[in-house]
Specification:
Layout lengths: L1 H22 L6 H5 L5 H11 L1 H4 L34 H10 L1 H7 L17 H13 L3 H14 L5
The structure holds heme C.
Length: 159
């Protein structure tokens, strides 16, 4: 009889593990992030080409980025130390860029009208990762550490 309970217990445990694993950001794997092929300098060039028009050449964001515009959407925030990009783990930054803000949040069950477009048809995954690594290179050691912790907690299903 006890054996049955042990087996049920293991099955439930596996079920939870499977749930946690599938909860983790579906559109990329952490390994992809860690093996980024594109260096920081190339990431900077790609950033200037693709992102600077809204997020600023010096990652400074749009004016009054904390207040919604007439269209009800937030302006593009800074990606430097002034902004909140470093509060998010790699998974969110990657999917926000690849899928666009609305789709990235929809994946996490949040309905949100976002002005952040999808770059899926314009940038490869490696290019997106290179851009993220460039943004990280402008942050302080402490911010990079905090951001790395957020990336770890994302693996367990956090955001
Ligand atoms: C057409 C303007 C535009 C362009 C170009 C653009 N963004 Fe954004 N981005 C936005 C807006 C607006 C927001 C804020 C929207 C929101 O609140 O969801 C945003 C938000 C983000 C966020 C999430 C917020 C945060 O915490 O930083 C990330 C990450 C991001 N953008 C990355 C990028 C990257 C990387 C590129 C270039 C590949 C890029 N964006 C190009 C408009 C743009």
């Amino acid at each position: 009889m006890n054996k049955v309970y042990i087996i049920l217990g293991i099955a439930a445990g596996l079920g939870i593990a499977a749930f946690v694993t599938t909860r983790v950001v579906p559109s990329f794997t952490q390994d992809t992030i860690q093996t980024a092929e594109i260096g920081v300098e190339q990431g900077r060039v790609l950033y200037v080409e693709s992102c600077a028009s809204c997020h600023g050449v010096n990652l400074e964001g749009q004016p009054n980025w904390r207040s919604k515009g007439d269209d009800g959407r937030l302006p593009a925030p800074p990606h430097n130390e002034e902004g909140h990009t470093w509060h998010h783990g790699d998974g969110l930054l990657f999917s926000y860029t690849k899928l666009g803000g609305a789709a990235a949040l929809a994946e996490r069950g949040i309905a949100y009208d976002s002005g952040m477009p999808s770059f899926d048809d314009r940038l490869s995954d490696a290019e997106i990762l290179g851009i993220i690594n460039y943004m990280k290179s402008t942050w302080s050691e402490r911010m990079r550490e905090t951001q790395a912790e957020r990336t770890e907690s994302e693996k367990l299903g956090g955001t």
